[in-house]
Known about the structure:
The structure is a single chain. The protein is mainly alpha-helical. The chain has three domains: 1-70 and 137-190, no CATH class; 77-134, 2-Layer Sandwich (Wheat Germ Agglutinin (Isolectin 2), domain 1); 198-233, no CATH class. The protein has helices at 30-47, 50-53, 55-69, 75-78, 82-91, 125-135, 141-155, 169-183, 203-207, and strands at residues 106-109, 120-123, 213-214, 232-233. Strands 1-2 form a two-stranded antiparallel sheet. It has a two-stranded antiparallel sheet with strand order 3-4. The radius of gyration is 29 Å and the shape is elongated. The model is unreliable at 201-213 (pLDDT under 50).
Amino acid sequence: MTAFTPDHCANCDAALPFQPSKNVTLYCTEGCRQTAKVIRKARVAMANGKFFTNPDVRYGVQIALAHALAGGYAGKARRLPPEVKQAVRDQADGVCEQCQEQLGTEIDHIDGDSPELPNLQLLCARCHRAKTDLRMPPATPESRTRIEELWTMRVLVSEPARLCDSEEWNDMSTRLKQERRLRLGHVPKKSHHKILTCEEVTGTAVFGSLVALTLCGTPLRDGVCPTPERHQGDA
Ligand SMILES: [Zn+2]
Ligand SMILES: [Zn+2]
Ligand SMILES: [Zn+2]
């Protein structure tokens, strides 16, 4: 059975509050959104074997899961414009600012999310990874249990346990968001399937200037009453 309850978090089932904006979400927190994203990524990496054959993939999944369980990585806040990235590269002459040996390929926030040049440095992949490992808070017994739980219940199962674990989630979520918007009253129900009857349109629109009519109430065909002979009054 694939779990999903409308108006509840797709990842943890917590009830979602009313959202006043049309920009609705299907998760209760950023951490839940990122957890589901890592689960999907991990399921794909297990299925195609890359989790075992490619250390970068395995490392990426582990780091992303740790971030997600810690409340989510501030990816959006940390995105840098191209001209800032170029300034960091120029400042370091393209060389890793840590080991001063390797080619610098990754831009690192020295501390916190500030996008200002003094807080940015150019690192090689190895130095960047070493720093990330060092900064990663040590796994608490609770987070270890949580990771094991997610792994056995959601990654190592052939059928997705939750709808948000499925590979089709990204396509499905568009429709699910639209349905949630409808339930929250953000989008007026579409009315173009409704068949207008002769009575429901104004006499002016259908019969030009002849409005002194008693209309018959027959469903319109191509916007025009099929039975004008039933109208009473001057035609
Ligand atoms: Zn949640
Ligand atoms: Zn380096
Ligand atoms: Zn009519």
